[in-house]
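Next comes a concrete protein, fold included:
___
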Amino acid sequence: MCRLFGMHAGNDRARATFWLLHAANSLAIQSHYEPDGTGVGTFDASGHAIVNKQPLTAWKDREFAQEAKNLKSETFLAHVRYASTGAHTQINTHPFEEDNRLFAHNGIVEGLQALDERLGELGTEPLVRGQTDSERVFALITAEIRRANGDIRAGIKAALGWIAENLPVYSLNMILTTADELWAVRYPETHELYVLDRTSQSSGEDHALVADSRRIRTHSPELADRHVVIVATEKMTDHDDWRLLKSGELIQVGEDLRVSSEIIFDEPPRHLLKLEHLDQKAAASQHPPKTA
């Protein structure tokens, strides 16, 4: 499945180094199980979104993913893509950016023709440049945020609520970031999504924050003794305080690093997809073999 990682460092921008693909892992598995794209999104000192992403279609692209990326921001959003829809191209690679917000998604939404019709009704169909369900989900969220006069919480609830009522859904796990906020949703319980509210403390002998998974790794000496909040597909540190989000849970993290939580859906999607409902490519994208 796609890997999601979001981090909020508070109101003081911090430096962090990202590796989006471990070299050892990428060489240890067969090519048809390789990720299809990697990307990371941040915001500059003026609050403008910056996206650094690339599809993985050749060995030179894997070199891009394995290179260390030294970034500075309040919020960070990283994604490793296993494609279920759309070609292995730049426009289909996460994160996506609209209205100076960044978005990444893990899961599958079907019924894209109906979704395109809804986007046409709301005037945001031109925002879709690629073929993915994820970009369409983000376009709908963007439309609903605009309709709610910039209220991100209301926009997410309205967009995901419409999808849950009208379209076949396997998973809608997502992270959305702005220059000073992080939003995340786990829905339904198909895939895991964790949050770590890490208070100020040293995280190891090298006195650096280290968060590590089978795909994404980040390292930041500046954040060793600072309060940070991390949201990720899997637990990435040895801390005992990782919490699995509940199905239907929306969390928001502001500059004060206070985590607010709300259950926005207490029932599964009306047209819930199971693994056996997916075609071979889609099923493989959601449950690729685990790497060492």
Notes: The CA atoms of residues 209 and 223 lie 6 Å apart.
